[in-house]
Write a structure and sequence with these properties.
The chain is built from three helices and seven strands. It is α+β, with helices and mostly antiparallel strands. A five-stranded mixed β-barrel has the order 2-4-5-7-6.
């Protein structure tokens, strides 16, 4: 091989290796910061990973909020009107947290199927709904409509 071509090949190979290492390091750093959203139906069907940081959300089920009078521990259920998930949280809930309203919680799903939240976010006005919850509720509604439609056709 000609010496000039050999030198170019070495330079190009070195550039490709350095770029590959940089992309690999960036992907590794981003992997630890990605929090995917899962609806209560997805969690109930086992699609959510255990012991990994995820976000979960839905509508807070009425009369499901249970507070420990001695600590800041609180447990409540969240639903997408098909399934519900119990969320446990230690801390002060947002002022806008109420039963029957949409919330998004960040945390981990433990081996018992209980979501242990590290942060709870509530919507900030009556018209706003987090996009993930809106989409989860729409998909739950459409699957309910499909099952109702298929039930109509089976008669």
């Amino acid at each position: 091989m000609h010496p000039v071509r050999k030198k170019r090949l070495i330079v190009i190979t070195a550039i490709v290796l350095i770029l590959s290492a940089a992309v690999g390091l960036v992907m590794y750093a981003l992997q630890q910061n990605i929090n995917l959203f899962f609806s209560p139906s997805q969690i109930a069907m086992g699609e959510a990973p255990r012991n990994a940081n995820i976000r979960a959300g839905g509508m807070v089920v009425k009369d499901s909020v249970k507070r420990n009078p001695d600590t800041l521990a609180v447990a409540f259920d969240v639903t997408d009107f098909q399934h519900k998930v119990t969320i446990e949280y230690r801390g002060i809930l947002p002022d806008l947290f109420r039963e029957g309203q949409g919330i998004v919680a960040q945390g981990k799903l433990n081996n018992d199927g209980v979501f242990e939240a590290t942060e709870v976010l509530a919507k900030h006005d009556e018209k706003y709904m987090p996009p993930e919850i809106t989409e989860a509720l729409k998909s739950a509604q459409s699957s309910t409509d499909e099952s109702a439609a298929s039930a109509q056709y089976t008669y």
